[in-house]
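Entry type: protein chain
Record version: 2
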Amino acid sequence: MKPLVLIVDDDSQMASLLKTMLELSDYPYIRAANAKEALSLFLSHQPQIVLLDLGLPDMDGVDVIKKIREFSRTPILVLSARNEDSDKIVALDAGADDYLSKPFSVDELSARLRVICRRIEYTQAPQISPVFKNGDLRIHFDEQSVYLKDEKLHLTPIEYRILSLLAKNSGKLLTRTYITKEVWGSSWDSDLSSLRVYMTSLRKKLHHQYIETSFGVGYQMIKADSDQENEE
């Protein structure tokens, strides 16, 4: 059974397009035309994915993200006509998991949904090693939290996904194409450009340690010492 999707969009034509796409891919869905209805449906139906437009008639979509993040980590994929980098950063920092600018292709949206579904399946599966340790770096996969020298780092959802992917493949060089496909579900030029931005921010938060850049190829997690091990 595929996850229940909550569509939050006041544009009836866009909502109709999303409904058709979800029906063709066998996703169950519910739809809200404003923020108040969206929050009510979220609490009553507990959807596993939210497709959220930011331009709602009664509340800005960023505020909806913040309200949901007060009590839930349900994946939120923003679908918005706002295409400035600043708009994307605000939404992602508020807690959105991904961002697609309108107009977008149905194929790309489908790919992003598949990535979210794989992540849901992974988080629901039993974890053998819930904590990754590498020197002073710790990643608690069950809590989706990261610590450096016992200080909790504040990462965006995409920064966390990139770091987790590198950690689970520690010591391996991951190509930019592989990373973008795992994180965004595609390797469009915009995704490759976004990856560079996120990597710059992530490496800064890690004090430029742990992640090595192979220019023109990709990135890898470097082991801080030979005693690095995962806790059971």
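Comment: Helices lie at 12-24, 35-45, 61-69, 85-94, 106-124, 157-168, 176-183, 189-205.
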